[in-house]
Amino acid sequence: MYQLWVPAWRPASRGGLLPAPGGRSSFSPHMHALLLTVALFQVTVAPESGEVHLRNIRQLTFGGQNAEAYYSATGRLLIFQATPPGAACDQMYVIGVDGTGLKRVSDGRGRTTCGWFYDHDRRIFYSSTEAADSTCPPRPDYSRGYVWALYDYDMYTANPDGSDRRPLTTYHRYTAEGTLSPDGQTIVFTSLKDGDLDIYTMNVDGSNVRQLTHTLGYDGGPVFSPDGKMIAYRAFHPQTAADSAEYVSLLAQKLVRPARMDIWVMNADGSDQRMVIHVPGPSFAPYFHPDGKRIIFASNFKHPDGLNFDLYLVNLDGTGLEQITTSPEFDAFPMFSPDGKQLVWISGRGRKAPHESNVFIADWVEKP
């Protein structure tokens, strides 16, 4: 789960960034038809000045809040979560990389997040609050500052059309942010099941659950390296007694304050945990470059008080920081295509309404 960093926005999860929801969870037929209509084509968008690694940018969705779009193994499909205009909760969708064939694959109950393809694209998994309540969970109380609500997500598996849905986990506590290992055998995810926000792995059938992180704090957004030997993630570990006390107090209320996040890596077995880069404010949504030697991630460290997040590349040792996007709007949730030739991400560029965010794809130019 990811959420935006100001009270006007709510999570889009692997770990999100959309406005806080309220009201019923299912989409009306009109809303669903609107989303289908606007996603049946793609529009080419000019890059911003300095976006030299991005060519032939295409916008795939057009309205509402769309987030966390991730490629299928073939590179032909994307799975993402979306809240159309006027709706209250994210639901899961699948769409072609050319913007056609949009289909909702969750059933409209609860809130959903963090979708992924697996089993050679024959199955998907995602997280949903439907077991806790079929309606949208309430927004957190922002009276004491901006916080994320740690909703009672569990992970579910289904066919790519949404049929044959069944639970992968039944913890009834925040369990989300799942991604797949390159060999297709292991899911890495974040859960509150043992009392802290830690990273775990499990087999794709839900068996052999193993805890990888144990330090007090939020460890989340994990993703495997191309060779499957490493995991990149974002983390906030309280450094003072006061920070620890606040973190624990909020956690007891199923809340977390995301004001600071750093990018970390560890071995796939949880060993050798180390920080890659620390900059002011929150950094999140890491994903490995195809060479396995760099990580692309989102941060607002140049504009820490606002929503101007951009994408950056950094070497695993923290050197060579390079800015990839330069739009004054929100840019986050990057993922390289399986062949490394394209990049998909979420952006607020060109938005027609406040807090709108859409899915964009660009050809990746390694050496401009």
Compact overview of the structure:
The chain is built from 2 helices and 27 strands.
Description:
By secondary structure, this protein is mainly β. It has a single domain (29-364), classed as 6 Propeller (Neuraminidase), CATH 2.120.10. Helices cover 6% and strands 38% of the residues. The chain contains 2 helices and 27 strands. Strands 1-2-27-26-25 form a 5-stranded antiparallel β-sheet, with no helix packed on it. Strands 3-4-5-6 form a 4-stranded antiparallel β-sheet, with no helix packed on it. The protein has a 4-stranded antiparallel β-sheet with strand order 7-8-10-11, with no helix packed on it. β25 and β26 form a beta hairpin. The chain is globular. Mean pLDDT is 89; it is low at 2-13 and 15-40.
Total number of helical segments? 2
What's the CATH class, please? Answer: Mainly Beta
Structural class: mainly beta
CATH topology assignment: Neuraminidase
The overall number of domains is 1
Describe the biggest sheet?
A: 5 strands, antiparallel
Number of strands: 27
CATH superfamily membership, which one?
Answer: TolB, C-terminal domain
User: What's the rounded overall pLDDT mean?
Assistant: 89
Principal-axis shape equals globular
Order of helices and strands: HEEEEEEEEEEEEEEEEEHEEEEEEEEEE
What level of helicity do the residues show? under 10%
Amount of beta strand: 35-45%
Q: In terms of per-residue confidence, which ranges show pLDDT below 50 for 5 or more consecutive residues?
A: 2-13, 15-40
Q: Whole-number radius of gyration?
A: 18 Å
Under the CATH scheme, the architecture is: 6 Propeller
What is the CA–CA distance across the termini? 33 Å
Strand order of the largest sheet: 1-2-27-26-25
